[in-house]
Structures are given as structure tokens and as C-alpha cells.
Description:
The chain is α/β, with parallel strands linked by helices. It has helices spanning 5-31, 57-65, 80-92, 106-113, 136-142, 169-172, 179-187, 224-234, 248-251, 253-268, and strands spanning 42-46, 69-73, 98-103, 119-125, 154-156, 161-164, 192-193, 211-216, 238-241. The protein is built from 10 helices and 9 strands. Helix 2 (57-65) packs across helix 10. It holds the Pfam family Abhydrolase_6.
Amino acid sequence: MPCRPRAALALASALCLALPLALPLALPAMAQTAPAAAPLRNIVLVHGAWVDGSGWKAVYDHLVADGFHVTMVQEPETSFADDVAATKRVLDLQDGPTLLVGHSYGGSIITEAGMHAKVAGLVYVAAHAPDVGEDEAALGATMPSVLAKTPGAVEKTADGYTYLNPALFPRLFAPDLPVARATFEARAQVLAAASVFSTPLTAAAWQSKPSWGIVAGDDQIINPELERFYYERAGAPITTIPGASHSVYESHPREVAAVIERAARTLGGGLN
Length: 272
């Protein structure tokens, strides 16, 4: 059939008129991209034996200044189960994915409590990280610390609670803190039930969740080589802070906060 110019022009005009109406419907679909990863902003800090959550103050200040939402757990140290429950109670209150951080005995706590659904990752700060069926007392005996080799360093009450000899606390726990501050902490100890150190774990969150580890280079409470063993076994990136004592989170808060922030940003894609 011969071409009819007027009919062709009419068809073209109709298409041109229809196209602007169709484009707004099509463009959003074409411009869609994958949603950005939600930032991980919640951090929960878990202290170790014989101390309390106030020791995290300097680390807390660094993290809050950088926009993170930070909560400290005050575990009672009356039993391992009680301390895990206290940590889970705080995790329940978080409003989204959370980075769980533990110091010393707090590492055992976060290893078990870290199975909580809101926990996205773990940071171990001069900490224990036992596996299922293990306990930190038995593991500590395989690589004894200066503490373990010091007679009379750990004392026990008649009802089975332990504490670090106050006269030895500054030298063993916090030699890189001002003496007055270390002496105050020695007199403000939270006595810990002896059983907390020998309770076998029933879960090990580091087996399934990303982990990071900090080795305190001059730790007298936990052998630094044991810390390194834990972190290597967990496949965790390791940061060693040379010369740092067991109180590394107090004496080197900026370096500790930097590791925590790096972990949080890795997991959550940064802060808004």
C-alpha cells in the first residue's frame, strides 16, 4: 500500500504527545538502585572482673563525640549466667544492629551473649574468647600470666567471691595509670564470684559473627600470647598496643575507640 504522509505525520504527533506522559512513569523504575546499608551506630561496652562500667568513660567520650550511641553494661559478677543475662537485657534495649565490646572477663560474656539477634559483631579488648565447652580459667592455665605466677595476688572471701589484692592492683592491673587512680580502683573493686571464671561456655558468637581483637602488649592479668591465640582462632583482625597494661581501655582510650569505630564502620557502612 502506498505511504500516506498525512497519516504518518498524525501517528508521529500522537507518539510525541504520549511520550512525556509515559516517561515520568518509567524513569523512577530506571533510576532505582539498591538501598544503602543502614549505619551501625549502637555500641554496648562490657567490663571485666573486679571493675565496673565507669572505666569505659574515656572510650565512651571518644565514641559519642563521633556520633555513636553507646551503652555500658553493669554486670553484677555474681555468676556467669547473671552477667550474660545483664548484657542481654541491655541488648534488648538497643534500637537496631549493635557492636558488642568486652574487656577481660567481659570477653567471655560477649562470646555467649553475642548470639543475641541484635549483635552484628564483637570487639575483644585484652579479653578472653573461649569456645563452646571451654572456660577461661582452664585456658589461662595453658599460658599463665604474671598474675597467675604472683603468690597472693587473687584473694577470696569466705563465701567464694574473689578480688585482686589491693596492694598489688596498681602494679598488676593498671601500671600505666596514675597511681592515685589505680589505687582508687583497687579500693572500688566489684568482687567476682569465683565460679564466673570456670563456667564452661554454651555458645561462641565469634564462630558466626565478625570479630576484632586488641592485644595489650604488657598485660599482666592475661598473657598477651593467649589473647593473640584467641583472636587468631576467631579469624579476627588483631591490633597490638605495645606497652599497654590490662587497663588498656583506660590508658589508651583513643586507640581502643579507633578499633571499635573501625569495626562499627566495617559492619554498618559508616554514620550518616
